[in-house]
Amino acid sequence: MSVGLEDYLAVSGLLFAIGFFGVLLRRNTLIIYMGLELMLNASTLALVAFSRYNNTMDGNVFVFFIITVAAAEVAVGLAIIVALFRKRQTIQVDQHNALRN
Amino acid sequence: MTDILFYVFATITVASALLVVLNPNAVNAAVFLIVTFLGMAALFVLLEAYFLAVLQVLVYAGAVVVLFLFIVMLLDVKGGRRRSFQPVTAVASILALALMVGAGVLAFSSRNLPPVESPEQASGSSLKAFGEQLFTTYLLPMQVTGFLLLVAMIGVIILSKQVRPVGRGN
Amino acid sequence: MQPANLALITLFAPLVAAAINGLFLRRRGVAAAALSVLAAGTSLVAGLTLILTAEPFSVSASWLSLGGFHLELGLLFNSLSALMLFVVVVVGFIIHVFSLGYMSDDPCRGRFFAGMSLFMFSMIGVTLADNLFLLFVFWEMVGLSSYLLISFYFEKPSAVAAGNKAFIVNRVGDFGFLLGIIWVYWTYGTMSITEVTHLADSGLVKTGIGLLIFCGAVGKSGQIPLHVWLPDAMEGPTPVSALIHAATMVAAGIYLLCRVGAIMTGEALTVIIWIGVATALYAGFCALPQKDIKKILAYSTISQLGYMVAAFGLGAKLALVGGDAHGVHAAVNGGVAAAMFHLTTHAFFKALLFLGAGSIIHACHHEQNIFNMGGLARKMPVTFAAFTVGLLALVGIPPLAGFWSKDAILALAYESNTLIFWLLVFGALLTGAYMTRLWVVAFLGQPKSGKAENAHENGWVITLPLIVLAIGAALAGFRGLYPEAFSGVLNAVPHPEEGLGMIIGAGIAAGAIGILGAWFFYRPGAMQDNLQRSAPAVYRFLAARLWFDEVYGWYVAKVQQRLAQLLSFLEQVFVSGLLVRGAAGMVGLVGLGTRALHTGSIHGYVYWFFFGLVALWLLSIGL
What we know:
The structure holds three protein chains of three kinds. Chain A is mainly α. Chain A is built from three helices and no strands. By secondary structure, chain B is mainly α. Among the domains of chain B are: 1-79, Four Helix Bundle (Hemerythrin (Met), subunit A); 126-162. Chain B is extended. Chain C is mainly alpha-helical. A two-stranded antiparallel ribbon of chain C has the order 1-2. In chain C, helix 2 packs parallel to helix 4 (109-128), helix 13 crosses helix 17 (401-416) and helix 17 packs antiparallel against helix 18 (418-443). The N and C termini of chain C lie far apart (83 Å). The chains are: A mainly alpha, B mainly alpha, C mainly alpha. Chains in contact: A-B, A-C, B-C. Chains A and B meet through helix 1, helix 2 and helix 3 of A and helix 1, helix 2, helix 3, helix 4 and helix 5 of B.
């Protein structure tokens, strides 16, 4: 059968779910961050699919910006993780609970 | 033809995504992430967004994951100990899964998605079209993004600066 | 000078003195006394100038405006307030001068004069206030100064108890008064005295309002059943008893009735009349067995106040019924005039009697039991003469003041109701009896104790006021002697044409019978009450004074205290416990609950994030 929009959206949704569960279930901060990137990519895929099937450029341009901003965000986020590691000597998320209660 | 390619690359992408998330080793996870991004790039090509595919490879696979690997190496993290199985986690994650599946089913079944036909030919998602859009309609966001990158760079420098104690004759 | 300014000087001079005395001159008795007397003198001069020169006026300034509710501060000066002001400032000044001598050996003089000046300020305020609310404020202040001065000797527990009793009983009356004021405002939307006197009739509501306002008079003027505080109030120094509990404060209730008299309906007036008559007789009976000279005079005051209340009621009712010669004057009817006239004369001779008693007490070094006195006529001639004049004026022997005013009251009674007339005549008989008993036992015969033995006439600071008041008591009955300013009131005093002989004759005869009866029954300078000796049962019954105090005591102890304890318990449980601490506890619980949500675990937060996201998404697709 022909591949349609729904198939791309299904892949996008699947990727998003995988990324989300990565965030939920892993304790390593870096893996969590990778999960975040996966979610972002899932959304870009959906956008491009829609842009292709609606015959516009808007989705593509949006994805362009998403990629740019995501790159910047990764840089800053990793810098924060490094700073956090220097403070707490750990990157296990469940040990970063100083805000408890 | 494109269908088969789609299925192949989709499978690769989803499989390596799973492996990213389920991998105990951070370096392995990062490498699988590269594979995922490559698969995504292929999917972009299938969607005739060639520029974006190349961008994906260059920026994401080339820069972002490399940055990840740098940090992984820098932090030199040992694998975390196996935590005992917690029922709370299981319950919560199953609940979240159910919600997600339910949401997805709801979204796709009860709502009438308009039938979409694939257009005959690409509407021109070429580099030229990109340039046109970027420099006319989306000029402001582009400038702002440039500024954002500058700010991000400054931020990173400040954040990763090590605080040295101010002493005499340093 | 502007009349309003004169009025303000009259009003505020004592306040200034009270403030300075209270704040700075507590230890300096001489300076405090001088300042108070000076302030009283200033009020006297300003007040007399105001009375003699000013036309009736009314000024007011807006004080408080909350939406539809307006409060004004104002002065209302007409012939009625002129007469009352005259009484207050003249008698007040004389008593201040008397106090200079009387309190000369008291170390707490500063406090005393501060209280006296505060009282003068409040009383003048009551006199001049132009709306009920302002009057009520000053009314309460009068009660406050009375309380402060009754418990002046605060080391004596009886004085403290008497002060509490006075204040609390007054409070009961004032509660009714306040309800009346609120009700007036609620029904008619005004509290201004000039407007209140011209209210439309509304049947039962107006009766209720009138009776509630009368409650204030019942409390302040010692009518039954709120009379119980007045005899106990004799714990205060004698000038206080003279000024506050004889001449002015207790007269404030009468003044209130006269001020807003037009609000009374026929039914309210009937109640007022009978309470007045009952008080007049009851107090006369209570005065007979008393041994303390001040208590005798206190009951006499209550009795005379009963006369004034009855007079007001009778005259107002006659005017209401209509068609009589007394009700001609628009603002002042015969009842108001008779009551105010008697108030004026009573102020003079009662103050005289109290100051005379004070002179005796001072000379006998604070001996107050008449059966321990005796033979004072020879030792203190001036006091004796003045006291006799006061006595005769009180009993109503012509041509002294009391005769004229009592005559007017009897005339009103004669016109209305024969029974009331004879009851009031009998009251005159009682008056003669108990006053003569006092006179005979204290002044005549031989001294019965060492203190009486050593008594001698006091200095001029004490005797001069007595003389002045004696002259006043003698002349106050002649209405022609009064300034033109009072004509508004005094011209309306009832002067009976028919039955004149009967009225005058009955009054004088009753007084004479009372005097002669007591003269022959009580032995001069006796050491023991003859009645007690010969008819002890009768004596005990009279001395029980109808057990008012006992009933009130039982009520407070058994009923009120239990209710108070119940309310306190309920308050502890419900208000303090459930509502206040409960509210705080609820807030605390909510705080604890939300605090527990902060697990510090990032995964937990992500779960919450996700659930919120799903909820928002469902909301957005319209589920």
